[in-house]
């Protein structure tokens, strides 16, 4: 049984956990013979509220008993 290959462009999807590696991975993939185009989907920018919610969920918040405590903390840094 014979199979036929057509010259239709294919699409490869790669999932990356560490976004700091995107530049290196993109460069490596572009070196592969036959790769003609590499595109990255644009990420939707989070609103201020969405970013604040993410900060709370990921523990990037500080609590102070009073404004004076906050000012003391800033002055000590």
Verbal overview:
The protein has 77 residues and is mainly α. It contains three helices and no strands. The protein is elongated and about 75 Å long. The termini are far apart.
> In sequence order, what are the helices and strands, one letter per element?
HHH
Percentage beta strand: under 5%
Weakly predicted, low-confidence segments: none
Helix proportion range: 25-40%
Helix vs. strand class: mainly alpha
Radius of gyration: 24 Å
Biggest beta sheet attributes: none
Overall average residue pLDDT:
87
Query: How many distinct beta strands?
Result: 0
How far apart, in Å, are the first and last alpha carbons? 74 Å
| Overall spatial form | elongated
Number of helices: 3
Could you outline the blueprint of secondary structure elements for this entry?
Layout: H1 22-30, H2 48-57, H3 67-76
